[in-house]
Amino acid sequence: MLPGRRRGWGFLIFVFLLLVGYTAIARRNTMPEVFAQALTLDQAEARSRDTGMPVLVFATADWCSPCAEFKRGALRHREVQQWIRENTIPVLVEMNDRNASPPEAERLKVWSLPTMLVLRDGKETARLDKVVPKDALLAWLAESTGALADWKHANPGQELPDLHTGTKRLPEAPGSIKVVPGAATPGGS
Question: pTM of the entire structure?
Fold first, then answer.
């Protein structure tokens, strides 16, 4: 091979590797899909009034390294995105300008990043202002936005109904020990 051709191939390989590296880095810092097409706060609150679903606000910034960690970590998991999609109306509040906060951030009193808020009827009902792992985020979402949270919001101050009462019994497992009231226990007197 001629020396000029070797340099040409080397340059092409360098450009290819540079593009692959840039794509990998850019992909890691992109917004999770569930927030990529998020509504504005006003649109989400209107939809919330129509559907009864809570609004989930995610406040973030491109310059915020904990935000990037949250986007690459817990928010990227399929289960988290599915929960958000099925139980909330997601809203993204981007605070990329360090010198001026968007009106939504001022209204919602977002002072630290990342912050997630749950809104019902325009009022904050839950706030998470730190990076958490997937399981902790799913637990927070379930407590703040799931069916149980919806029931509690619709029935303020009421006790949860006892879901374990009734006449239906679970079948006993094969080989289980049957306990008969008044019978002597094994090993006892």
Answer: 0.71
